[in-house]
Structure formats: C-alpha cells, structure tokens
Amino acid sequence: MEPHVNGPFTPDLAHPISKLGQTAKDSSWPLDIKVGLIGSCTNSSYEDMSRSASIARQALNKGVKSKSKFTITPGSEQIRATIERDGQAETLRQIGGVVLANACGPCIGQWDRKDVAKGEKNTIVTSYNRNFTGRNDANPATHAFVTSPELVTALSIAGTLDFNPETDSLLAADGSKFKFETPYGDELPTKGFDPGQDTYQAPPADGSGVSVNVDPNSTRLQLLTPFAKWDGKDIENMPVLIKVKGKCTTDHISMAGYWLKFRGHLDNISNNLLIGATNIENGEANNVKNQLNGQFGTVPEVARFYKANNVPWCVIGDENYGEGSSREHAALEPRHLGGRAIIVKSFARIHETNLKKQGMLPLTFANPADYDKIQPSDRISLIGLKNLEPGKPLQCKITHADGGSETIELNHSMNEGQITWFRAGSALNRMAELKASQ
C-alpha cells in the first residue's frame, strides 16, 4: 500500500503521498511544515522509533538535519529508557529533534507552542491519532496532518508537504542528491526492554487518617462534590441546550490544549463545555439561545443559567457522538452543569460508557430520522423512568414551541448495574452506597 497522509482538520481525509503535494497546492494548504511530531501513546513502539531513527541516520550520513522543528514523545517510561540505551533517541536529537517527557503532550495540546501566533495559518505533521481543529495547539488555523512516524520524519527533514520520499531526492551537504532508502527497525530490542525508572508510589495501607487539603481559592484543584441522586420522577420539559449538527467529538465537547490545566478543577474546565460543537440553529459554534430569557450566549453560560434556575437540560446529537479521545471530562462537565440526558443517533462506545458512569442518560433514537423532529426551541420529557430496564425503550415527549407535541421512542444500552448508577446519581455514588451498607 502506498503511504498515506490524512488531514487537515479530520482523520477522515486521506491522501496518497504521491498526490498530497498537488492537493495541498490546489487547496491552498501551507506547504511549509512548521513542526513534525512523532510518538505519543499511538505511534511510539520500539519499532516505530527505530524506523524513524533509520530515516534520520540516512539524513545525518549526508550531512542533513530536519528543516522543520521536530519532537519525539516516548509512549512509556519503558520505551523512553530503551531508545535512550539503544541510541535511537540520540540519533533523532542529532537531526534537531527534542525528546519530550513520556506523557501526554502535544497530542492533546499540552504544548507551549510559540513559533506561530494564534490564528496564523500553518502546517504541522504528526504521527498522532487525532487532528481535529485546534486539538494539538488550540490554534484553529493549524493544518494538522497525521501519518506514520517514519513518514513524519522524512517530511520534517524535507520541510515541505510536496516531498514524496518514495520518488523525490534531497540535497546533501556536499551538493549531491540522495534518496531515502526504505526504513527498517527491529520489532523488539535485541537486549530486551529497559524498564526505566520505577516512579510508582504505593498508597498507605490504611488511608482512614489521610486528609486532602485543597486551597478553596485554587483555580486548578477542586474537591469533587457528589452529584445528586435521581429523585424517582420522570424528567420533564427539559430545554435543548444545543442541537448539534454533524461531527461532535470529545474535543468538541471538552476541548484540550489551554483547558487541560484546569482538569483538576471541574467547575473551571466546564467553561469549555461543547464550545466546539456546531449549533444547527445558526451554524455557529459556542452560540446558543437561552430558552428561558430568549438571549443568545455561550454554551457554558446558558447551561449555568439553567442550572441556577434548577432546570435540567439535554443535548441532541448526530452520529457517533463522542468519538475521539476517551476524555472523562466530556461526561463530567455536562453532568456538573445540570445536564440529564444526551440524545443522539449513535454514540462512540467509550463516551457512552463514561456518560453512564456520571449518572447521565445516554439515549439513541429508535428511528434516527426522529433527530429531525426535534427543534432547538422544543422541550423534552423522558417518560417511564421508574420502569427503566435493560433493553426496554423509553418514551420521549417532544413539546414544540407552538404547543403541539409528539412522542417518539428512545433506546438505551444500560444493563442493570448501570441503571443503579443512574438512580444513585453516578457510579461513584453507587460505590459509596455499597460501602456504607457493608
């Protein structure tokens, strides 16, 4: 198979490497590659790093370094230690690479990028698995492309999207031309893996006397407060916080980048709730109508207004809602801000489970066409919650702004244990109940 590069702005857009350059020119995508980034939890196996190092070694033998900035993120302490011992890390440094910590980094926006201004159109190429708008650096103008680690390395050395390492030559330091040979890397280290540093700290055998003190004025840490239990009643007349149009990933629901510094403070990070989702009512992101006062505001502002007025709300979504990173805050935030149900055509599996854990109701249209029946100005009632059972649909009453109403069916995939999470208010609440009963 010919190597492919996917992007920009979505992993769904694939280009054979032989056609990428012309497609980029035709689409007015920036050809100049500002940064190449390899590794992360996605593509940083020993073989990945070895194949990338084999490309780098060929360039070094010709006196060539990376034209683009270049970063390497080991996927684990074991990989970091092993590629340091076996030399791949040093080879990648020699072409100008910077080896980052073996932790989540630029992949989810934990990256203090300063080479371009926000809003400046630019291109980066990564071996990560996500390239949604603004994900890697919080810059919506960054054209992020994803491909294999060795292809990222080759493109970074060339510095441009219209380089095809299968056919094109580079200029060596002595003025001669050379082509890359097919990269090679051992699947496993011949010396075995180096486990690296043992950073595990065991918890105390008896934690009953341990207290956690958090500054109440901290903006980055906050002790969690248990969510309220279900009151035993149907949830009626919920306003639609937002009816989402099209793709809605966990990056749209809980954006990364700048926001991740608040991941220990649920209330503060909740200010990014659904700010990347497209509102079907106006085609805009982060601009929804408050159904209580008629004014438009940001999604978090309107959600907070409903919560302050003790009005539960719901979200209406499209296909594969919640795809992407298994980001727990994407489920915590709607629950924290007063949401009770997410009603969509279909869910990404992990996000659906995360919603269940937080006591949210993840529901799907029995007839996907019923998505079109709900308008942003409608009120939604969930009928029959007392009889919620595995495999049994729920009745949903839609009350339109003109006073008319209609009823549709909603499916769910909750088993008996997950239904107890909903009734208790969350999975953690249920665990506390069980502990208290022992």
TrEMBL record:
Domain named Aconitase/3-isopropylmalate dehydratase large subunit alpha/beta/alpha: residues: 2-159
Gene Ontology cellular component annotations, sorted alphabetically: cytosol; mitochondrion
GO biological process: tricarboxylic acid cycle
The keyword Iron belongs to this UniProt entry's keyword annotation: yes
Keywords (A to Z) from UniProt: Iron, Iron-sulfur, Metal-binding
GO molecular function annotations of the record: 4 iron, 4 sulfur cluster binding; aconitate hydratase activity; metal ion binding
Domain Aconitase A/isopropylmalate dehydratase small subunit swivel, chain residue ranges per copy: 238-367
Record-linked PROSITE patterns: ACONITASE_1, ACONITASE_2
InterPro entries with a match to the protein in the record: Acnase/IPM_dHydase_lsu_aba_1/3 (IPR015931), Acoase/IPM_deHydtase_lsu_aba (IPR001030), Aconitase/3IPM_dehydase_swvl (IPR015928), Aconitase/IPM_isomerase (IPR050926), Aconitase_4Fe-4S_BS (IPR018136), Aconitase_4Fe-4S_dom (IPR036008), AconitaseA/IPMdHydase_ssu_swvl (IPR000573)
PANTHER family associated with the record: ACONITATE HYDRATASE B (PTHR43160), ACONITATE HYDRATASE, MITOCHONDRIAL (PTHR43160:SF3)
Name by which UniProt lists this protein: Aconitate hydratase
